[in-house]
């Protein structure tokens, strides 16, 4: 396996960075998770845009243009001869000293591209739907650390993931700072009620899979909403599902012990999932 580090493709065993890298010391950096399907990178431009937007807010200057970054992703995929891949793009603040001040870093961000496979949930969960719970850890307050930033600082999500695991579940709902449903630890959440599809309007990552689902729903002439909703509306929805680059689209059939609809993946969810699969097979940047 070849890993891209700062412009060079190296063997996995040689893919090493400094212990003084602020990505390690402080989680100071940005990342993206991207997928390719049959030699097409899905929504690559959108992922690159989000990476650079997060970096902009963190005042982290990525030393490549967007075009160069796209080329670096493609070069890494080609070097690894992967047709279906999960691509992890990481840019850290780079090397600094043992103080958190980013101005002390040497203005040489570390750029890493890993291309590999990812299997998140077992196949049965996609067919039968998954059961999730709400966990006590709330999603970061947007005015403390905005969930729209896809930074290397994922402890908020990891704490929630630990709570989910402690209760025997693989994914969990996190509420926002006001008690509304925000998202899951690594996925966005959708509910469908009477042909209206809704996803939370605040306190979440603006997921690229979620945006794709909204586009599909509009194509199907469904009413789409980004709005505040509570757990009660999740419990009483007709259908529920989660979206993410890694998870793709996964139906949810039980939340906090309450069955959603008939307790099976819903017809609209399955229709959207089918369309999503079709899009991933034909859209994307070819390599
Ligand atoms: N919310 C959060 C908090 C995420 O981390 C999504 C939503 C979905 O966004 P996209 O753009 O992928 O549709 C994510 C991204 C994992 C893992 O190992 C998952 C994500 C990121 C990194 C790792 O489960 N999901």
Q: Secondary-structure blueprint of this entry?
A:
Layout: E1 2-5, E2 8-11, H1 22-26, E3 29-37, E4 40-41, H2 44-57, H3 66-80, E5 85-92, E6 110-116, H4 123-128, E7 130-134, H5 155-166, E8 172-175, E9 181-184, E10 188-193, E11 196-200, H6 208-219, E12 223-227, H7 231-235, E13 239-244, E14 248-255, E15 258-259, H8 267-282, E16 285-286
Parallel strand pairs: 7-8, 7-14, 11-12
Antiparallel strand pairs: 1-2, 1-6, 3-4, 3-5, 4-16, 5-6, 8-9, 10-11, 10-13, 13-14, 14-15
Radius of gyration, whole Å: 19 Å
For the record, give the distance between the C-alpha atoms at the N and C termini, rounded to a whole number.
18 Å
The helicity comes to 25-40%
| Small molecules held by this entry | 3-[O-phosphonopyridoxyl]--amino-benzoic acid
Which topology of the largest domain does CATH recognise?
A: D-amino Acid Aminotransferase, Chain A, domain 2
Order of helices and strands: EEHEEHHEEHEHEEEEHEHEEEHE
Class inferred from helices and paired strands:
alpha+beta
Number of helices: 8
For this structure, what is the CATH class of the largest domain?
Answer: Alpha Beta
Largest sheet, strands/sense/barrel:
9 strands, mixed
Which percent band covers the strand fraction? 25-35%
Specify the overall morphology: globular
CATH architecture of the largest domain: Alpha-Beta Barrel
């Amino acid at each position: 396996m070849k890993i891209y580090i700062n412009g060079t493709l190296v063997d996995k065993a040689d893919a090493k960075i400094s212990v003084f890298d602020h990505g390690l010391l402080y989680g100071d950096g940005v990342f993206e998770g991207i997928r390719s399907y049959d030699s097409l990178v899905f929504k690559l431009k959108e992922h690159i845009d989000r990476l650079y937007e997060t970096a902009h807010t963190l005042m982290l200057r990525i030393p490549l243009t967007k075009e160069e970054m796209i080329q670096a992703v493609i070069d890494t995929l080609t070097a690894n001869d992967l047709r279906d891949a999960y691509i992890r793009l990481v840019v850290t603040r780079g090397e600094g000293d043992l103080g958190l001040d980013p101005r002390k870093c040497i203005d040489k961000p570390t750029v890493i591209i890993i291309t590999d496979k990812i299997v998140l949930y077992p196949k049965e969960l996609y067919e039968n739907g998954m059961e999730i719970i709400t966990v006590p850890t709330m999603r970061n307050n947007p005015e403390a650390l905005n969930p729209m930033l896809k930074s290397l600082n994922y402890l908020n999500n990891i704490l929630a993931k630990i709570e989910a695991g402690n209760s025997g579940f693989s994914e969990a709902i996190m509420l926002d700072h006001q008690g509304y449903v925000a998202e899951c630890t690594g996925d966005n959440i959708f509910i469908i009620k009477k042909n209206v599809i809704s996803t939370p309007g605040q306190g979440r990552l603006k997921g690229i899979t979620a945006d794709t689902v909204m586009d599909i729903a509009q194509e199907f002439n469904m009413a789409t909403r980004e709005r505040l909703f509570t757990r009660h509306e999740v419990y009483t929805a007709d259908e529920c599902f989660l979206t993410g680059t890694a998870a793709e689209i996964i139906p949810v059939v039980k939340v906090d012990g309450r069955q959603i609809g008939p307790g099976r993946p819903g017809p609209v969810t399955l229709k959207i999932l089918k369309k999503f699969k079709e899009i991933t097979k034909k859209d994307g940047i070819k390599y």
